[in-house]
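pinned: reference chain
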Amino acid sequence: MAKINMVQALNTTLHDVMEKDSSVLIMGEDVGVNGGVFRVTDGLYEKYGRERAIDSPIAESGILGTAIGMAIGGLKPVIEMQFSGFSYEMMHQLEGNASRMRNRSRGQFSVPLVVRMPYGGGVRALEHHSESKEAFYAHTAGVKVVIPSSPTNAGPLLRAAIEDPDPVIFMEPKRSYRSFKESVSPKDYTIGRAEIVRSGEDITIVSWGAMMRDTLKAVEMIESDTEFSPEIIDLLTISPMDAATIVESVKKTGRCVVIQEAQQSFGPASEIIALINDQALMYLEAPVKRVTMYDVVMPLFAREMMYLPSKGQIVRAIRETLEF
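pinned: its C-alpha coordinates
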Protein backbone atom coordinates (compact mmCIF):
# COMPACT_ATOMS: atom_id res chain seq x y z
CA MET A 1 0.00 0.00 0.00
CA ALA A 2 1.37 3.41 -1.00
CA LYS A 3 2.24 5.83 1.78
CA ILE A 4 0.54 9.23 1.83
CA ASN A 5 0.89 12.42 3.85
CA MET A 6 -1.83 14.25 5.79
CA VAL A 7 -2.68 16.65 2.96
CA GLN A 8 -3.26 13.71 0.63
CA ALA A 9 -5.35 11.91 3.24
CA LEU A 10 -7.59 14.93 3.76
CA ASN A 11 -7.89 15.58 0.04
CA THR A 12 -8.80 11.96 -0.69
CA THR A 13 -11.47 12.06 1.99
CA LEU A 14 -13.03 15.25 0.62
CA HIS A 15 -13.13 13.75 -2.88
CA ASP A 16 -14.74 10.59 -1.57
CA VAL A 17 -17.32 12.28 0.66
CA MET A 18 -18.34 14.81 -2.01
CA GLU A 19 -18.76 12.04 -4.57
CA LYS A 20 -21.04 10.05 -2.27
CA ASP A 21 -23.02 12.91 -0.73
CA SER A 22 -24.23 15.73 -2.97
CA SER A 23 -25.11 17.88 0.07
CA VAL A 24 -21.42 18.31 0.96
CA LEU A 25 -19.67 21.38 -0.44
CA ILE A 26 -16.49 23.32 0.29
CA MET A 27 -16.17 27.07 0.64
CA GLY A 28 -13.40 29.49 1.56
CA GLU A 29 -10.66 31.74 0.31
CA ASP A 30 -8.83 30.16 -2.66
CA VAL A 31 -10.24 26.69 -1.99
CA GLY A 32 -11.66 26.35 -5.51
CA VAL A 33 -9.58 27.32 -8.53
CA ASN A 34 -6.28 27.29 -6.63
CA GLY A 35 -7.03 24.18 -4.55
CA GLY A 36 -6.30 25.89 -1.23
CA VAL A 37 -3.10 27.43 0.12
CA PHE A 38 -1.91 23.99 1.25
CA ARG A 39 -3.65 22.15 -1.64
CA VAL A 40 -5.99 20.23 0.65
CA THR A 41 -8.91 21.02 -1.71
CA ASP A 42 -6.95 20.40 -4.89
CA GLY A 43 -9.02 19.05 -7.79
CA LEU A 44 -12.43 19.59 -6.21
CA TYR A 45 -13.27 22.65 -8.33
CA GLU A 46 -12.47 20.80 -11.54
CA LYS A 47 -14.53 17.80 -10.48
CA TYR A 48 -17.57 19.42 -8.87
CA GLY A 49 -17.66 22.95 -10.27
CA ARG A 50 -18.12 26.37 -8.74
CA GLU A 51 -21.42 25.52 -6.99
CA ARG A 52 -19.79 22.94 -4.73
CA ALA A 53 -16.22 24.28 -4.58
CA ILE A 54 -16.87 27.92 -3.80
CA ASP A 55 -14.20 30.62 -3.77
CA SER A 56 -15.36 33.19 -1.24
CA PRO A 57 -14.46 36.82 -0.64
CA ILE A 58 -11.90 37.57 2.09
CA ALA A 59 -14.55 37.77 4.79
CA GLU A 60 -14.29 35.09 7.45
CA SER A 61 -17.45 36.17 9.28
CA GLY A 62 -19.35 36.11 5.99
CA ILE A 63 -18.01 32.65 5.14
CA LEU A 64 -19.25 31.14 8.39
CA GLY A 65 -22.49 33.11 8.40
CA THR A 66 -23.30 31.86 4.91
CA ALA A 67 -22.37 28.30 5.90
CA ILE A 68 -24.70 28.44 8.91
CA GLY A 69 -27.61 29.26 6.61
CA MET A 70 -26.58 26.49 4.23
CA ALA A 71 -26.39 23.97 7.08
CA ILE A 72 -29.79 24.90 8.48
CA GLY A 73 -31.14 24.57 4.94
CA GLY A 74 -29.96 20.97 4.60
CA LEU A 75 -26.46 21.23 3.15
CA LYS A 76 -23.20 20.10 4.79
CA PRO A 77 -20.68 22.89 4.20
CA VAL A 78 -16.99 22.29 4.87
CA ILE A 79 -15.48 25.75 5.10
CA GLU A 80 -11.84 26.69 5.35
CA MET A 81 -10.25 29.42 7.40
CA GLN A 82 -7.06 29.92 5.42
CA PHE A 83 -5.09 30.07 8.67
CA SER A 84 -6.42 29.64 12.20
CA GLY A 85 -5.22 33.14 13.06
CA PHE A 86 -7.76 34.55 10.61
CA SER A 87 -10.64 32.72 12.28
CA TYR A 88 -11.06 35.32 15.01
CA GLU A 89 -13.09 37.32 12.49
CA MET A 90 -15.71 34.56 12.50
CA MET A 91 -16.03 34.24 16.28
CA HIS A 92 -19.25 36.23 16.52
CA GLN A 93 -20.96 33.91 14.05
CA LEU A 94 -19.51 30.83 15.78
CA GLU A 95 -20.42 31.76 19.34
CA GLY A 96 -23.55 33.75 18.63
CA ASN A 97 -25.19 31.54 16.03
CA ALA A 98 -23.57 28.23 15.07
CA SER A 99 -22.99 27.04 18.62
CA ARG A 100 -26.39 28.16 19.92
CA MET A 101 -28.77 27.22 17.14
CA ARG A 102 -29.76 23.76 18.41
CA ASN A 103 -30.46 25.16 21.89
CA ARG A 104 -32.04 28.36 20.59
CA SER A 105 -34.47 26.46 18.39
CA ARG A 106 -35.06 23.79 21.06
CA GLY A 107 -33.80 21.13 18.70
CA GLN A 108 -35.72 22.26 15.65
CA PHE A 109 -32.53 23.18 13.76
CA SER A 110 -29.04 21.75 13.77
CA VAL A 111 -25.93 23.19 12.14
CA PRO A 112 -23.97 20.33 10.52
CA LEU A 113 -20.91 22.19 9.28
CA VAL A 114 -17.14 21.80 9.55
CA VAL A 115 -14.67 24.64 9.92
CA ARG A 116 -11.26 23.45 8.72
CA MET A 117 -8.28 25.52 9.79
CA PRO A 118 -4.52 24.96 9.51
CA TYR A 119 -2.99 25.78 12.88
CA GLY A 120 0.25 25.63 14.86
CA GLY A 121 3.89 26.53 14.40
CA GLY A 122 7.01 25.04 12.93
CA VAL A 123 6.60 25.98 9.27
CA ARG A 124 8.22 29.45 9.30
CA ALA A 125 4.95 31.30 8.77
CA LEU A 126 4.21 34.92 9.60
CA GLU A 127 2.25 36.51 12.44
CA HIS A 128 -1.32 35.22 12.93
CA HIS A 129 -0.37 32.04 11.08
CA SER A 130 1.20 29.88 13.82
CA GLU A 131 -0.93 30.08 16.97
CA SER A 132 -2.37 27.09 18.80
CA LYS A 133 -5.68 28.40 20.11
CA GLU A 134 -7.75 25.24 20.45
CA ALA A 135 -8.86 26.42 23.89
CA PHE A 136 -10.76 29.33 22.29
CA TYR A 137 -13.08 26.98 20.46
CA ALA A 138 -13.25 24.24 23.09
CA HIS A 139 -14.54 26.82 25.58
CA THR A 140 -17.52 27.50 23.31
CA ALA A 141 -20.46 25.32 24.33
CA GLY A 142 -22.18 23.63 21.41
CA VAL A 143 -19.01 23.32 19.32
CA LYS A 144 -16.84 20.23 18.94
CA VAL A 145 -13.08 20.53 18.43
CA VAL A 146 -11.11 17.84 16.61
CA ILE A 147 -7.36 17.69 15.97
CA PRO A 148 -5.84 14.87 13.89
CA SER A 149 -2.21 13.93 14.35
CA SER A 150 -1.35 11.75 11.37
CA PRO A 151 -2.37 10.71 7.86
CA THR A 152 -3.94 7.60 9.38
CA ASN A 153 -6.49 9.40 11.54
CA ALA A 154 -6.90 12.67 9.58
CA GLY A 155 -9.19 11.31 6.88
CA PRO A 156 -11.51 9.25 9.10
CA LEU A 157 -11.80 12.11 11.62
CA LEU A 158 -12.69 14.57 8.85
CA ARG A 159 -15.34 12.16 7.58
CA ALA A 160 -16.77 11.83 11.10
CA ALA A 161 -16.79 15.63 11.45
CA ILE A 162 -18.72 16.04 8.18
CA GLU A 163 -21.27 13.45 9.29
CA ASP A 164 -21.72 15.04 12.74
CA PRO A 165 -25.01 16.93 13.25
CA ASP A 166 -23.32 19.83 15.07
CA PRO A 167 -20.63 22.37 14.18
CA VAL A 168 -17.10 20.96 14.32
CA ILE A 169 -13.87 22.95 14.42
CA PHE A 170 -11.36 20.77 12.60
CA MET A 171 -7.84 22.00 13.37
CA GLU A 172 -5.11 20.67 11.08
CA PRO A 173 -1.51 20.85 12.39
CA LYS A 174 0.47 22.46 9.59
CA ARG A 175 3.74 20.91 10.79
CA SER A 176 2.24 17.47 10.15
CA TYR A 177 0.86 18.23 6.69
CA ARG A 178 3.84 16.92 4.71
CA SER A 179 6.48 16.06 7.29
CA PHE A 180 5.85 12.30 7.19
CA LYS A 181 3.84 9.65 5.35
CA GLU A 182 2.00 6.53 6.46
CA SER A 183 0.35 3.53 4.87
CA VAL A 184 -3.30 4.30 5.53
CA SER A 185 -5.80 1.46 5.84
CA PRO A 186 -9.56 1.91 6.36
CA LYS A 187 -10.39 2.57 10.01
CA ASP A 188 -13.21 4.37 11.77
CA TYR A 189 -12.63 7.09 14.35
CA THR A 190 -15.33 8.56 16.54
CA ILE A 191 -15.47 12.19 17.66
CA GLY A 192 -15.08 12.31 21.42
CA ARG A 193 -12.89 9.20 21.63
CA ALA A 194 -9.17 9.32 22.28
CA GLU A 195 -6.85 6.63 20.94
CA ILE A 196 -4.47 4.60 23.06
CA VAL A 197 -1.54 4.59 20.68
CA ARG A 198 0.48 2.37 22.94
CA SER A 199 -0.51 0.47 26.09
CA GLY A 200 1.74 0.58 29.14
CA GLU A 201 1.93 0.35 32.92
CA ASP A 202 4.41 2.96 34.20
CA ILE A 203 3.20 6.38 33.05
CA THR A 204 0.38 7.95 31.05
CA ILE A 205 1.47 10.40 28.35
CA VAL A 206 -1.22 12.52 26.69
CA SER A 207 -0.72 14.65 23.60
CA TRP A 208 -2.35 15.66 20.31
CA GLY A 209 -1.71 17.30 16.95
CA ALA A 210 1.87 17.85 15.81
CA MET A 211 3.17 17.22 19.34
CA MET A 212 2.11 13.59 19.07
CA ARG A 213 4.97 12.74 16.74
CA ASP A 214 7.48 14.60 18.94
CA THR A 215 6.12 12.71 21.94
CA LEU A 216 6.67 9.35 20.26
CA LYS A 217 10.22 10.33 19.33
CA ALA A 218 10.91 11.50 22.89
CA VAL A 219 9.75 8.13 24.21
CA GLU A 220 12.13 6.41 21.80
CA MET A 221 14.97 8.56 23.12
CA ILE A 222 14.25 7.46 26.70
CA GLU A 223 13.92 3.82 25.68
CA SER A 224 17.41 3.90 24.20
CA ASP A 225 18.85 3.79 27.73
CA THR A 226 15.91 3.19 30.10
CA GLU A 227 13.45 0.33 30.26
CA PHE A 228 9.94 1.57 30.95
CA SER A 229 6.35 0.95 29.86
CA PRO A 230 4.51 4.13 28.82
CA GLU A 231 0.84 4.36 27.93
CA ILE A 232 0.52 6.95 25.16
CA ILE A 233 -2.83 8.61 24.46
CA ASP A 234 -3.60 10.66 21.36
CA LEU A 235 -6.45 12.92 22.48
CA LEU A 236 -7.83 13.54 18.93
CA THR A 237 -10.91 15.39 20.24
CA ILE A 238 -10.34 18.37 22.51
CA SER A 239 -14.07 18.84 23.09
CA PRO A 240 -15.87 16.72 24.06
CA MET A 241 -12.82 15.29 25.82
CA ASP A 242 -12.53 11.54 26.39
CA ALA A 243 -12.30 11.75 30.17
CA ALA A 244 -12.85 8.04 30.74
CA THR A 245 -9.80 6.94 28.73
CA ILE A 246 -7.51 9.42 30.49
CA VAL A 247 -8.79 8.66 34.00
CA GLU A 248 -8.65 4.89 33.60
CA SER A 249 -5.11 5.11 32.27
CA VAL A 250 -3.92 7.30 35.14
CA LYS A 251 -5.55 5.00 37.67
CA LYS A 252 -3.49 2.19 36.16
CA THR A 253 -0.13 3.98 35.87
CA GLY A 254 -0.23 6.49 38.73
CA ARG A 255 1.77 9.01 36.74
CA CYS A 256 0.98 11.42 33.92
CA VAL A 257 2.64 13.93 31.60
CA VAL A 258 0.58 16.13 29.26
CA ILE A 259 2.18 17.73 26.18
CA GLN A 260 0.52 20.57 24.29
CA GLU A 261 1.81 22.98 21.67
CA ALA A 262 -0.40 25.78 23.00
CA GLN A 263 0.80 28.24 25.60
CA GLN A 264 0.59 27.05 29.17
CA SER A 265 -2.15 29.02 30.90
CA PHE A 266 -5.83 28.06 30.54
CA GLY A 267 -5.17 25.40 27.89
CA PRO A 268 -6.37 21.79 27.44
CA ALA A 269 -3.45 20.50 29.55
CA SER A 270 -4.82 22.45 32.51
CA GLU A 271 -8.25 20.90 31.97
CA ILE A 272 -6.74 17.42 31.83
CA ILE A 273 -4.89 17.99 35.10
CA ALA A 274 -8.11 19.25 36.73
CA LEU A 275 -9.90 16.16 35.43
CA ILE A 276 -7.25 13.89 36.95
CA ASN A 277 -7.43 15.76 40.27
CA ASP A 278 -11.21 15.34 40.30
CA GLN A 279 -11.35 11.66 39.37
CA ALA A 280 -7.97 10.02 39.97
CA LEU A 281 -6.12 12.06 42.60
CA MET A 282 -5.74 9.22 45.10
CA TYR A 283 -4.15 7.02 42.44
CA LEU A 284 -1.30 9.46 41.71
CA GLU A 285 2.25 8.59 42.73
CA ALA A 286 3.70 11.84 41.36
CA PRO A 287 2.42 15.31 40.43
CA VAL A 288 1.11 15.59 36.89
CA LYS A 289 3.55 17.51 34.67
CA ARG A 290 2.75 19.51 31.56
CA VAL A 291 5.02 20.51 28.70
CA THR A 292 3.78 23.60 26.86
CA MET A 293 4.73 26.78 25.04
CA TYR A 294 5.37 29.98 26.95
CA ASP A 295 2.72 32.56 27.84
CA VAL A 296 3.88 35.07 25.27
CA VAL A 297 2.90 35.89 21.70
CA MET A 298 4.20 33.38 19.16
CA PRO A 299 7.50 34.80 17.85
CA LEU A 300 8.39 35.14 14.20
CA PHE A 301 10.17 32.25 12.56
CA ALA A 302 13.77 33.11 13.50
CA ARG A 303 12.98 32.06 17.08
CA GLU A 304 10.00 29.84 16.38
CA MET A 305 11.62 26.51 17.20
CA MET A 306 12.95 27.89 20.49
CA TYR A 307 9.36 28.64 21.45
CA LEU A 308 7.80 25.29 20.55
CA PRO A 309 8.07 22.49 23.13
CA SER A 310 11.15 20.41 22.33
CA LYS A 311 11.74 16.68 22.49
CA GLY A 312 14.31 17.42 25.19
CA GLN A 313 11.67 19.10 27.34
CA ILE A 314 9.35 16.13 26.89
CA VAL A 315 12.12 13.69 27.81
CA ARG A 316 12.97 15.67 30.95
CA ALA A 317 9.32 15.84 32.07
CA ILE A 318 8.85 12.09 31.62
CA ARG A 319 12.08 11.23 33.44
CA GLU A 320 11.30 13.55 36.35
CA THR A 321 7.80 12.09 36.70
CA LEU A 322 9.10 8.52 36.60
CA GLU A 323 11.79 9.28 39.19
CA PHE A 324 9.58 11.21 41.62
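why pinned: The chain has twelve helices and 14 strands. The chain has two domains: 3-183, 195-323.
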